[in-house]
Amino acid sequence: MRTRAALALEAGKPLVVTEVDLEGPKAGEVLIEVKATGICHTDDFTLSGADPEGLFPAILGHEGAGVVVDVGPGVTSVKKGDHVIPLYTPECRECPSCLSRKTNLCTAIRSTQGQGMMPDGTSRFSVNGEKIHHYMGCSTFSNFTVLPEIAVAKVNPDAPFDKICYIGCGVTTGIGAVINTAKVEIGATAIVFGLGGIGLNVIQGLKLAGADMIIGVDLNDDKKEWGEKFGMTHFVNPRDAGDDIVPFLVNMTKRGADQIGGADYTFDCTGNTKVMRQALEASHRGWGKSVVIGVAGAGQEISTRPFQLVTGRSWMGTAFGGARGRTDVPKIVDWYMDGKIQIDPMITHLLKLDDINKGFEMMHSGESIRSVVVY
Ligand code: NAD
Ligand code: AHE
Ligand code: ZN
Known about the structure:
The structure is a single chain. With about 375 residues, the protein is of the alpha/beta class. It has helices at about 40-50, 95-100, 110-115, 160-165, 170-180, 200-210, 225-230, 245-250, 275-280, 305-310, 325-335, 355-365; strands at about 1-5, 15-20, 30-40, 65-70, 85, 125, 130, 145-150, 150-155, 190-195, 215, 235, 265-270, 290, 315, 345-350, 370-375. It folds into 2 domains: about 1-170 and about 345-375, Alpha-Beta Complex (Quinone Oxidoreductase, Chain A, domain 1); about 175-320, NAD(P)-binding Rossmann-like Domain (Rossmann fold, 3-Layer(aba) Sandwich). The protein has 12 helices and 17 strands. α6 (about 200-210) links the parallel β10 and β11 (about 215). Bound molecules: nicotinamide-adenine-dinucleotide (NAD), ligand AHE and zinc ion. Ligand AHE binds near residues 40, 42, 110 and 320.
């Protein structure tokens, strides 16, 4: 079949909206009509050329929602007409990682996914016979796409596509980082670095978990109002914090008889390795947990004095908020439908596929929180 898609032809160049050829689903695969897709900073990261796994030409996009329109042989868990969210972290429930119950990082199809292929090592997308790579196993910047059945979560059919697509990455990553990865408790103190599409969901997760002091840090003062909407109690612009933001934040979080500062939990949602270090060092001596969420480019490394870890801080990371997609994503959709979490205010712009490059521009300028393309 033919479908419209935004093609990433080469690094650093705008996407090109065009018709592409799409083969139907093979064994164990499903064909999805994508109804809406968010634009995440990770799409921009890969398009920029900084992603060591980035492949071109490709169809990017990994934050979608849609309907199953066809299934390949042997598919049993979903059927035509089901509403689904594509999962860049699948859940096969059979691999050693899934069975370990210690991680959400299913390994069933990770190697072919990283090569921009379906599990059989081929691509379903092409233009004039030339292969186009899949991206993160999802390629939601195409009106129709093919995914393995283990990489789709069946969700409540009443849920609006243009909102729940955000659960395909940003919402789940932010809230999951708090609940699944950091396991934040009632009364905790926390610092969130970077108040974009992910950081605001970390704040929303901290509020849900019952954190007391929630400090947001961003270079953009407009993010103060945004953070406060979701439960942030204090805002710091690093430019107003003197030469080193770490002692500033440690001082802000001083409490107890010994007056040792530092937050119980810190989260990097910037992808900046210097900020990751600040986040670790602004966590509390003895028990602080610092969670890396941001993704950094090829060749970038994090560093700190080992003393920071010797004195009891833990440096951890999370992908997709530690969520097991087929199990957890339907529940998060229900939380949204039950009014337990907010999504609507964070979706600041709805775009047509033809205008997808505007979504990237508004992400760069800080004008948008999430832009969503509606097909
Ligand atoms: P975004 O562009 O919406 O937000 C980034 C925010 O960080 C902006 O508000 C920006 O002003 C702020 N910022 C940038 N540099 C800063 C600095 N030095 N100090 C303080 N604030 C700074 O991006 P997003 O969609 O929220 O994504 C954030 C990061 O998370 C990206 O690196 C993205 O690739 C990554 N990500 C990771 C996962 C995962 O599973 N680990 C999932 C989604 C996104
Ligand atoms: N390809 C990059 C890493 C990118 C990365 O870490 N991606 C996250 C999801 S970001 C969603 O917006 C992820 O799921 N990581 C786990 C995995 O298996 O990729 C690189 O640096 O090579
Ligand atoms: Zn993402």
